[in-house]
Amino acid sequence: MFDLIPLKSYADVYYCFLLFVTLILLMYSKKESLESSINVTFFKLGGILLFISTLLYIGFRPISGTFVDMMTYNKRYVYYQSGGELKLNRDPLFQTFTYLCSKIMSNNWYFFTCGCLYVVPLWWACKRWFKEGAFLAFLMLLGSFSFWAYGTNGIRNGIATSIFMLAISFDRKVIIYGLLYVSYSFHSSMAIPILAYLLALYFANPKYFLSFWFLSIPISLVFGGVLQGLFATMFEDDRTSYLTGEVDESQFSSTGFRWDFLLYSASAVYAGWYYIFKRNYSDKMYNIIYCTYLVANAFWIMVIKANFSNRFAYLSWFMMAIVIVYPLLKKYIINDQYKNMGFIALAYYAFTFIMNFILNKI
What we know:
This protein is mainly alpha-helical. 71% of the residues lie in helices and 0% in strands. About 2% of the residues have low confidence.
């Protein structure tokens, strides 16, 4: 559908599109209140258009090595199409899903279906949590640093995190646990945020979780290597080889203790601290979300020096936008709140745009 867009510019077009939408939001936020009729209409129409355009653009992208692991997924899909045996050695539900799709649809429609499983749960979760404010939350999720990469490259991990997000937006435990199981069965690395969520569900005390997050930094600096080996023995998955393998800087630039990524993570930590402790914001669901983020992000900090540690960072980063925006769409907390929402969305997206667009041009 989008074959006319040069592959080398495919992601850049989307980053520029999101910048355009974010600037429009900023313009509207300076003029009108959140409850004004013009903004209610803008949020409804804008949300629908943003949802559809993102779904189509990601779902019907060309099948190309430009998207890295997309070709690995396509190779497995072709294998199943040609009569290959179903492989359930890991991520069994995703493999079953891929196998069944290979019997009834083409490669292009398979990747569109994957796009649906990635984008639809996020939009659904935003609608469940924020109703009319879903557009702003959804825009910030799309503007997250790793959103594009996990929709086009780390596909099954991206789907698993979206299903996780939808799961925790429900109130009924049978639905929550059912979707969490689906999330884990799509990508076993979800054990980390799932365990963090379960811990937060039954002991959501932000003060202690925040202390644990700060403590994880010196622990990583002093005992990082020991912890990588320890965590590698706790999970029976070949993905943990990233934790113990020798760092190869020629293959992955984000090695060593990444203070820049730590500061990025800290933006959500600061936001939660500000809402809860400075503005006395009290919401059980938000406490659970915030504490889940703190635990999952602390795990990444403790293995930050490992190969491909960004893959562990994503297990918390996918929640960052919600951590930052949730209270603002639930309660009046700060002065000129809606006007400042536009600046918050722009500041949040600025990191993504600079890292993934501007720095790639230098």
